[in-house]
Amino acid sequence: MQKGYEKTYDWVVKLLQDCNFEDAAKRLGLTQTAQDEVSVEFLGRVYRVNKNGVHLTEQNIVWTAKSEGFDYNLKSDLGYYVLSDANMEPINDFCTLSVFCGGVFREGGDGSVFGNALGRVYGRDYQRFCAVAEKLGMTLEESKPPLKYIWRYTMLPKLPIKIVYYEGDEEYPTKLQILYDKTAIQVYKFEPLAVLNGCFMEALAAIGEL
């Protein structure tokens, strides 16, 4: 029986049949690699998106996610990105993911399986996080040792984020919080944005384990 994430991906591929790739490339800042194809970079990987689907073509940073359905979920979200009709620039005003759903969704920076993975990999090892951040091309915006550090990163074109690293101690564990530009909800509906958030955290943890 086909899994839910497989059905979602099949639905995205169906929608891509009618995608105007030239227009999407111009609006979203993507590289158009053919008449009906664009490339999308995600955490050191390059994916080609065309009418036949979403395909991993390069791995400048090799990492492997372990959760069931990860590849389908990520490819579906990259497809949704190309399909977005958003036409705006980020406003550099950042918030947690939960803001986009009125607080109904509980932010997973310190409670979800992926949030726990970030804490497990980078907890009390800020230098390891620094090495990964620099490898990915993140920019350190604020440093207040030993309290917190704020890094800026472009997860996807037109989708900047900030990663706040709160150093832990004997009483409180290390916490990594992901903040999104408030225009992110114009690019994605909340559900695929939440899935992308999970994919990003899992992949970031996987890179830290290399």
Characterization of the model:
The protein is of the alpha+beta class and 210 residues long. The protein is 38% helix and 27% strand. It is built from seven helices and nine strands, in the order ααββββαβααββββαα. It has helices at residues 4-16, 21-28, 70-83, 113-122, 126-136, 184-187, 190-208, and strands at residues 31-34, 37-42, 45-50, 53-59, 94-96, 139-144, 148-156, 159-166, 175-181. Strands 5-9-8-7-6 form a five-stranded antiparallel beta sheet, covered by helices on one side. The protein has a four-stranded antiparallel beta sheet with strand order 1-2-3-4. Strand 2 and strand 3 form a beta hairpin. Helix 1 packs parallel to helix 3 (70-83), helix 3 packs across helix 7 and helix 4 (113-122) runs parallel beside helix 7 (190-208). The longest helix is centred in the C-terminal third of the chain and has 19 residues, at 190-208. Mean pLDDT is 92; it is low at 108-113.
List the helices and strands and how they pair.
Blueprint: H1 4-16, H2 21-28, E1 31-34, E2 37-42, E3 45-50, E4 53-59, H3 70-83, E5 94-96, H4 113-122, H5 126-136, E6 139-144, E7 148-156, E8 159-166, E9 175-181, H6 184-187, H7 190-208
Antiparallel strand pairs: 1-2, 2-3, 3-4, 5-9, 6-7, 7-8, 8-9
Helix pairs in contact: 1-3, 3-7, 4-7
